[in-house]
Design brief:
alpha/beta; UDP N-Acetylglucosamine Acyltransferase, domain 1; seven-stranded mixed β-sheet; five-stranded parallel β-sheet; 7 helices
């Protein structure tokens, strides 16, 4: 198979302006006294409705401005919208209200004309926001567009983690992503589950993805699963039980079909503590 590293492309003419904007956001967020809701509102208004950036407070109350426009303007402020996790019974409101403005900025940027599929700028903006949202965020974090979370504050991320497009990281019960983890497009990682008898009965269970793991396209990892180091969950697979180290799991429910060729000898031996719950 050919080895195809990422290409290096020339910098865009707007790189300097973008870097100045990112540096300003980073500097502002580093100040613990920053009003995050105001920062979110001012940033989003500048992106979506620059003509109202200087007079947002007046415009949202101005009857001469069309009602729908005023409503859209008001939604630039995270205090005027609700996110699904706010309705969860176990939501820690003090923690969530602190990260909510940054989640709203993250999600809204992806849907803006500036965001869209703007790869470099999007990755850099999310690198600025992630350490202020997650419980822990390591170095060189890379997230592409339309990645969403539950709380955000229950997510621990190691170094050199890559999360691709349209991924859901449901951190209600906690998610740990180890170093070098890759989560491919449209994958879902859960940390809560519902009773099959009464869906209102919710159980939270931490989900752990160890170093070097790959969760591939459209795969799902259910709550409480431990994907051990260098394990792989194949495309469209559903991991309902722990995944052994260096093993490749596919299917629904996911089962081991092979061991990676770079696995140490020990990986070929069933580990009692892991296999007790393995499929």
């Amino acid at each position: 198979m050919p080895y195809l590293p990422l290409r290096k492309i020339p910098e865009r003419p707007t790189r300097g302006t973008a870097t100045e904007w990112l540096d300003s956001l980073s500097h502002t967020l580093a100040d613990p006294s920053t009003d995050r809701a105001r920062l979110c509102r001012e940033t989003l208004t500048s992106l979506y409705y620059p003509e109202f950036a200087a007079n947002w407070e007046t415009a949202v109350q101005d009857a001469k401005v069309p009602t729908a426009t005023r409503l859209a303007l008001a939604s630039m402020d995270p205090g005027n919208i609700t996110l699904e996790p706010e309705y969860y019974g176990e939501c820690d409101d003090a923690k969530f209200q602190r990260v909510k403005p940054l989640l709203w900025l993250w999600y809204s940027f992806d849907r803006s004309p500036l965001g869209g599929q703007n790869v470099w700028l999007g990755v850099e903006l999310r690198r600025v926001l992630a350490p202020h949202i997650f419980k822990r965020c390591g170095e060189n974090f890379k997230a592409f567009h339309h990645v969403e979370f539950s709380f955000g504050y229950n997510l621990e991320v190691g170094d050199n983690v890559v999360v691709h497009r349209h991924v859901l990281l449901d951190d209600r019960g906690g998610i740990v992503l180890g170093n070098g983890v890759s989560v491919s497009d449209y994958a879902n990682v859960y940390s809560h589950t519902h009773s099959i008898v009464d869906q209102r009965e919710v159980t939270n269970a931490a989900t752990v993805i160890d170093d070097g793991v790959r969760i591939t396209y459209h795969a799902t990892v259910l709550a409480g699963v431990h994907v051990h180091e260098q394990g792989m969950v194949g495309a469209m697979a559903v991991a309902t039980k722990d995944v052994r180290p260096y093993h490749v799991y596919v299917g629904i429910p996911a089962k081991s079909v092979r061991v990676k060729p770079n696995a140490p000898e020990a990986a070929n031996v069933l580990r009692t503590s892991i296999d007790r719950g393995a499929v």
